[in-house]
Amino acid sequence: MCGILGYSGNFDTGALSAGQAAIAHRGPDDSGKFIDQSAGIGLAHVRLSILDLSQLGHQPMASPDGKVVLVYNGEIYNFRELRAELEAGGTRFRGNADTEVLLNLYLAEGKDMLRRLNGIFAFALWDARDKSLFLARDGLGVKPLYYAVTDRGVAFASEIKGLLPLVPQARELDVVSLHRYLSFLWCPGAGTPLRNVRKLLPGEAMIVREGKVERQWIWYQLPVFRGLKPDLDEKAALAGTVSHLRQAVQRQMVADVPLGAFLSGGLDSSAVVAFAREQNPDIHCFTIEAIGGQEEGATDDLPYARRVAKHLGVPLDVVQIQARQMAGDLERMVFQLDEPLADPAPLNVLYISQLARGQGIKVLLSGAGGDDLFTGYRRHRAVQAERLWSWLPAVARRGLDRAAASLDQRRAWARRLAKLFNGAGLAGDARLANYFAWARESDLLGLYSDGFREQLGSAVAASPMLDFLQPLPADVQALDRMLALEQRFFLSDHNLTYTDKMSMAAGVEVRVPFLDRELVDFVQRIPLRLKQRGQVGKWILKKAMEPYLPHDVIYRPKAGFGAPLRRWMRHDLRELLGDLLSTASLNNRGLFNPQAVQGLIAANDAGKVDAAYTLFSLLCIEIWCRRFVDAV
Fold it and tell me: What is the DSSP letter of 144?
């Protein structure tokens, strides 16, 4: 796991070094550069050594004739099988790194190699034979890759902070993306806060030639788009869930350095640890205790994590964090994330990764993705429950929306009811996409300055999600459509983004067995009735894990990361809120209406609205602007 950056075109080689230094945290073990000035190509790499710790794994890595050069971030989990095939065909290897397998697979199969890869990756491959720069990102978007197209050429990097030294002029804000951050707390699609900086999409590839994008295409589609049908009975689904998850976990344990695991005490991380300990009985596990960090209605994870660790007989380390410390780390969090994601959960990943790295552990297994494949979020239950009220006329559904929104939002049950019926008057995919929203579009428009609204025009926050679902046949059920949104957007643009950035800030690689390509395909074959059974989400996964985990852990209430954000907005972050969202600050930025923002703060204090996350999002955007736009 590493960091990469580079360019094709007329760029300053000194800026390449500056960008490399900006992402040095991603690769504390080694670094390297390749520059071909005559071809206008520069590639740089920082290395976190996981496989083949010798210099034989050094990057940039060149073919024997020096005509093909690779920089790569990630892990190819089936590299040993691919290597065996290549060796049978006469390829000779110098070392044992998966990087060398990736390079030789390209030499053997060209761009068609992508379909052979089971792993997490972002790479750039310079082929001097046809003067092409080939960029690609893994199918589920576990590893990030940003790029900018400018009049000087095309530049790319694992993080925006590594890209900006190459394109310092690319600091114009993208108001459509900011609108999406405020709507969802993260930005679905290719956009970023900067108009000229884009994300290479999950499963997307690009060919750049002489500083221009020649071709851009999607090489991987989710199984629901490939027509993979749910055709398994309960017995086959149970057996296959166990075998595929076990194989995915143990496949992803390959490493030449110590490996551990997150253990929150939830089903997903517990399932991963249960199968990991079969291969390593002493696998070291990590969890977090946020002192004073529970919101009303939240469930304490720690007792469940300890219960699982005792049941499985694995060591468990607990990092204790005061809620006040978490609030104080907010500005660092926003800088490390590269994007103004308004969620305190990334701090969880950072603290655990720091603890693991302090004990010499460079790789952690995560349970991320279980809810997005098998169901598990409240919105999945809400979609299934729509049949109870969706038959009502639109005017009655809109009335439910207004009535729920008028309740005292200081109560957890009232907030959940308001979220359930937010957008009830919408139909079809628009209603599905709206379940991801944390603020009403009409309310947000009232917060914007005249200039912001003018630039925003008629842009719709959910348009990337709606466009994505459009090719799906009408007979694909609503819950399957929502799971497609989870897998394509919520995972890659939010959960996986913050997991990568915060773990790499501590020099730790996180692997996600639930997103193994074979497992993802298998789960699509499980009927929805075996995933969401009534109000029980992940039903088939829970049944599958009954022989391995305590019953009370499997069927416990679902819990999110319990940072007391609503209290922060009223107390711990009040001074920062008053500074960054002051009238003077907002006028200077020119994005938001100071009077409307102050009114929102007052309404939130009074419990008339639940605006904690919207205020947190405004705060993160201003912090982000100060670090990435103002600090040139």
Answer: -
482 in any annotated domain:
no
Structure tokens of 513?
């067995």
* DSSP letter for each residue of 439-451: S-HHHHHHHB-HH
Same domain, 505 and 584: no
Tell me if residue 271 falls in helix, strand or coil.
helix
Alpha-carbon gap, residue 35 to 51, rounded angstroms: 25
Residues 6+ apart with CB under 8 A from 159: 3, 22, 23, 26, 144, 146, 338, 501
User: What would the DSSP string read from start to end of 549-573?
Assistant: S-HHHHTSPP------HHHHHHTTT
Is 450 inside a domain boundary? no
Rounded CA-CA distance 615/573 in Å is 11
* Placement of tokens 């957890």 in the chain: 412
The domain in which residue 570 lies consists of 564-632
Domain tally, the chain:
4
Distance CA 80, CA 100 (A): 11
Query: 395 and 362, same structural domain?
Result: no
Q: What are 471's two structure tokens?
A: 């090719």
pLDDT tens per residue across span 12-60: 999 999 999 999 999 999 999 999 999 999 999 999 888 777 888 899 9
CB 289 within 8 A of CB 563: no
Tell me: do 526 and 568 sit in the same domain.
Answer: no
CATH of the domain at 495: 3.40.50.620
Instruction: Residue 59: name the closest of 125, 148, 115, 144 by CA.
Output: 125
In the chain the first and final C-alpha atoms are separated, in Å, by 29
* Model confidence, pTM: 0.94
Does residue 211 lie in a domain region? Answer: yes
In a domain? residue 263: yes
Note whether 546 and 577 are same-domain residues: no
Structure tokens of 547? 């022989």
Q: Are 146 and 36 contained in the same domain? A: yes
Q: Which helix (H) or strand (E) holds 286?
A: strand 284-291
pLDDT band at 203 (very low <50, low <70, confident <90, very high): very high
Tally the residues of the chain. 632
Q: Token digits for 1?
A: 């796991």
